[in-house]
Amino acid sequence: MLELKHLRTIQGLARFGSIAACAENLHITQSAISHQLKELEVRIGAQLFYRKTKPIKFTSQGQVVITLANSVLPQIAAAEKQLNQQELSSRFTLAIDCHSCFQWLLPTIKQFQKSFTALDVDLESGFHQHPLERLLAGEIDVMITSDVESRGDLHFLPLFGYELQLVMSNDHPLVALPSISPSDLTSQVLITYPVDKRRMDVYNLFLKPNNCEPLKWKKVDNTSTLLQMVSGGFGVAALPEWAVRTFENQELIATRPLGEGIRRHLYACVRLADKECEHIQAFVDMTRQMNSNHSVID
């Protein structure tokens, strides 16, 4: 008669006080909330709460269901957590959706492995389509991404912020400018990683809103090669600050902000049931500590 979705819905209604707030926090539509409540009332043959009351006032039958939800749902969450931790006790697979993340992620993983020697840690790229579906399917455990999606089955743990910069050779004409405008790139060869431009921040946040395109797109699949080509004057690139620091410190390249500055944030995306797993929390904490030179986000 009672399903978990009903228990989660009525618990959310009691916690957030209205159907609108409940729908927003559970990441489902108000009509879906109303449908579930009506369905449950039909099944139990009784009204759960009094309509048009602020705050919501529950009937005695509604209170019974709320008490059940508050008892059962934590037990289920604890069991899911335990089962997931047992299943993942020997495997921890990370994926990334940005090529340049290797620069900071590999040292972090090396340090992480010292603390969790029993884990078989693996790293793969998430450059293929639908990486979050692979996360939900259990094929990967953490997805490092800068794109947050509002959905109830995933949780995004904040890591740190960074700035996207334009990188060029030291003698490039654009070095004379204090910052770069989108139109400045219309005469430039823009060197990028081999991904569709619609997945690139420089396109989505800088060029596209201003109806600009570079003179030419040139794709390179390796950060070191990309930076050497930039240093050699074969084009310019838009990269996170961590990817260019070594070359910039050696005075092999120059950087300038894009417009007034493009700030992005990285997150560790995990399945909702895994967000409090010990090794995932440890990985997030270690990532923040080892990248404290960036701005950590709460």
UniProtKB/TrEMBL annotation:
Family the UniProt entry places it in: Belongs to the LysR transcriptional regulatory family.
UniProt domain HTH lysR-type: residue ranges: 2-59
Record-linked CDD domains: PBP2_MetR
Pfam families in the cross-refs: HTH_1 (PF00126), LysR_substrate (PF03466)
BP-aspect Gene Ontology terms: methionine biosynthetic process
Name this polypeptide is given: HTH-type transcriptional regulator MetR
Coiled coil: none
Keywords: Activator, Amino-acid biosynthesis, Cytoplasm, DNA-binding, Methionine biosynthesis, Repressor, Transcription, Transcription regulation
Subcellular localization, as worded in the UniProt entry: Cytoplasm
Annotated PROSITE patterns: HTH_LYSR
GO cellular component: cytoplasm
